[in-house]
Amino acid sequence: MSQAAHPAPRSLAEALRARDDVSLAALLRSRPDLITPVPTDLTQLATRAGTRASVLRALERLDRFALQTAEALAVAPDPASYDTLLGLMAGDAGDETVAAALPHALGTLREQALVWGDDERLRLVRTARELLAPSPQHPSPTGLGPSVQEATSGMSPGRIQEIVTAAGLPSTHDSVSAVTALTALFNDRKKMGRLLAGAPEPAREVLARLVWGPPYGQVTPDPAAHLRWLLDRGLLLPTAPGTVVLPREVALHLREGRAHRAPEPLPPAVEPAAAHGPQMVDATAAGQAYTALATVEELLKDWDEGGPAVLRAGGLSVRDLKRTAVALDVSEPVAAFWVELAYAAGLIASDGEADERYAATPAYDEWLELPAAERWSRLAEAWLAATRTPGLVGGRDAKDRTLAALGPGLDRSAAPEVRHRVLTLLAGLPAGTAPDSESVLARLRWERPLRGAQQRDGDEDLRSRLARWTLSEAELLGITGRGALSAHGRALLGAPDTSATASSSPESTGPAEPVGPGDKLPVHHHHRPPAAPAPLSAAEQAVATAAAARLLAPLLPEPLDHVLLQADLTAVAPGPLRRPLADLLDVLADVESKGGATVYRFTPASVRRALDAGRAAADLHAFLAEHSRTPVPQPLAYLIDDVARKHGHLRVGAASAYVRCDDDALLNEILADKRAAALRLRRLAPTVLAAQCDPATLLEGLRAMGYAPAAESAEGDVLIARAHAHRTPPRTAPEPVPDGPPPPDATLLAAAIRAIRAGDLAATAPRKPTGAAAPLATGELPRTSSAETLATMQAAVLTGESLWIGYVNAEGTASQRVIAPVKVEGGFVTAYDHTADEVRTYPLHRITGVAELAED
Question: What pTM value is reported for the model?
Answer without folding.
Answer: 0.76
